[in-house]
Amino acid sequence: MSMIVNNALGHFVMCSAVWYQLISVLRKYKSLLPLVSLIAVPGVAQSDSQPTWITDLSQVVITGVEGDSFVYRELMRDLTLEAAAITGLALPMRLPPVILADQDTVARYACQGKCKALGAFHPTYGIAIVRDLDPLKNDLARSILLHELVHFLQHENKLFAGANDCIRWFKREAHAYAAQNKFLRKVQSTTRVANSLTPSCRMGRG
C-alpha cells in the first residue's frame, strides 16, 4: 500500500514540476505573441488581396495567336511579375488584353499609324506587338513585351501622372527602356535598346 502511495506521490511531483516549467516558458515568451500576430496578419492580408490572374490564367486575354494560347498566357503572367519586380511598381488586379498583329495595326496603337513601332500600349485597348517577333523564343521580343507591360504598370500606378503630356511620355519611356535593358542583362542577352526621344519633346514642347 505504501509503495502505491509513494508512486502516486512521485507522479504528482513530476507532473507538477513539468507544469511549472511549461508555465515559466509561456510567461517568458508571452511578449512575443503580439509580434507573431503582426507578422502573421499582413501575410494573410497579402494572400487575400493577391491578383487572381496569377493563378487563373483564363483571365489573361490574348488574340492573334496561332495554336494554343496557354503558353502566351503563362508568358504574360511571368513577364508582368518580372516587370513589377524590376520597377518596384505594384501589381495590378487585372492584366491588359494583348494582340499579336501586323506592323500597321501596332503602329495604329502606338502613334496613329505615323511610325514603325514593334510594340505599343494603349490605355483603352491594351498591348499590341508585332506578330513576327515571337516572344516565346526570342529574348529581344520578350523584352519588347516587358517594355509595354512596364507602360501598363506605369498607367495603373499613375507614375509621373502629374507631369504634362510630353514630359510624362519622356519619363515613362526612359523608365521603360531602363527596365527593358535590365531584363536583357538578366537573361544574359548582349542586345541593348535606346530611347527614341524626339528633340522637340526634349525641349518640353506640349
Radius of gyration computed on alpha carbons: 28 Å
DSSP strand content? 5-15%
State the secondary-structure class.
alpha/beta
Percent range of helical residues: 55-70%
Count of alpha/pi helices: 7
What is the CA–CA distance across the termini?
103 Å
Structural domain tally: 2
In CATH, the topology of the largest domain is named Collagenase (Catalytic Domain)
> Which H/E pattern describes the elements?
HHEHEHEEHHH
Gross CATH architecture of the largest domain: 3-Layer(aba) Sandwich
Uncertain segments are: 1-9, 28-47
CATH class of the largest domain: Alpha Beta
Output the keywords.
disordered N terminus; Collagenase (Catalytic Domain); alpha/beta; 7% strand; single chain; globular; 206 residues; 2 domains; four-stranded mixed β-sheet
Topology:
Blueprint: H1 2-28, H2 33-48, E1 62-63, H3 70-87, E2 98-101, H4 103-111, E3 119-122, E4 126-130, H5 139-157, H6 165-186, H7 199-202
Parallel strand pairs: 1-2, 2-4
Antiparallel strand pairs: 3-4
Brief overview:
The chain is an alpha/beta fold and 206 residues long. It has helices at 2-28, 33-48, 70-87, 103-111, 139-157, 165-186, 199-202; strands at 62-63, 98-101, 119-122, 126-130.
Describe the protein.
By secondary structure, the chain is of the alpha/beta class. The protein folds into two domains: 44 residues; 152 residues, Collagenase (Catalytic Domain) (3-Layer(aba) Sandwich), CATH 3.40.390. 56% of the residues lie in helices and 7% in strands. The chain has seven helices and four strands; from the N terminus they run H-H-E-H-E-H-E-E-H-H-H. The protein has a four-stranded mixed beta sheet with strand order 1-2-4-3, with helices on both faces. A hairpin with a 3-residue loop joins strand 3 and strand 4. Helix 3 packs across helix 5 and helix 5 crosses helix 6. It is globular and about 40 Å long.
